[in-house]
Amino acid sequence: MKKIASILMLILLGGLLWYLFIKPYDYLVSFKAKTFPGTINQVIKTWNTSFPDAKRVEQDGLERLKQQIVFGDSVHIYKWKIIPLNDSLSRVKVYVKDKDNSFMNKVSIPFSTTDFEKRTKKTLVSFHEKLNEHIGNFRVSISGESQTATTYCAYIPLKGVQIEKARGMMRNYTFISNFLAENKVKLNGKPFVEVTRWDMEKDSIEYNFCYPIIKSDSLPEHELLHYKQMEGKKALKAVYNGNYITSDRAWYALLDYAEKNGIEVDHTPLEVFYSNPNIGGNELEWKAEVFIPIKELQ
């Protein structure tokens, strides 16, 4: 009997030592979100910029992120784990630690509701509300395997962070459309964006803002404008409805679809835009077709 009691005491002591000195977090919050990991990843990063003295969110793939938030004299570390449950549902776990007061939190939390616990709950309830609001502002429908169009186009090469893609398009929209119209270049379809490089960790892209045109022997020249032939490619396709600022949500949806279906793809999305944001209106009625090229077999 004494031996059993000694073993139980050692187990309890080991558990206590682990809880106080080894456990890597002070508090855990878990919730579900009706979207895929890429959307949650991007909303965390955007939300992070709302805090004073915000540092860049670190990430290990789409589904693991580390964030540092300063509250007065305290520095809180948020470690996010995003677990996809199905095509439209994810579980989010947030492991929170007070960088300088972790030991006292672990001692106090089992016996009282601490200020740290209250602040953590309030902060993550606010995040959850913002996430749900964002989810309601767009739709993505996966169409499956398709083909991009073969076309000749006029384009301007651009680069920047993902969230500024639409701004880059708008800055050049009037110039391209007016220049082509003034020089009587015949258009041959809807404007589109061809991403040529995507750094998923830094959320930066290099891309071409393109107008399909009828090729001729006397195309006008301009230092900012280039021309090229685009060959059609086999690709995964989605339809995006919403503000074009966040049309990259469809990129993540397609990557998620590709992974679940064992399809190898190139991380070079192509977006075709069917609506003119200058006209305004209900953003959920704005439409873009989004493609992720399927890797060709060697």
TrEMBL record:
InterPro entries from the UniProt entry: GyrI-like, Reg_factor_effector_dom_sf
A Pfam cross-reference name: GyrI-like
GyrI-like small molecule binding domain mapped to chain residues: 176-295
The species this protein was found in: Leptobacterium flavescens
Name of this chain's protein: AraC family transcriptional regulator
Domain of life: Bacteria
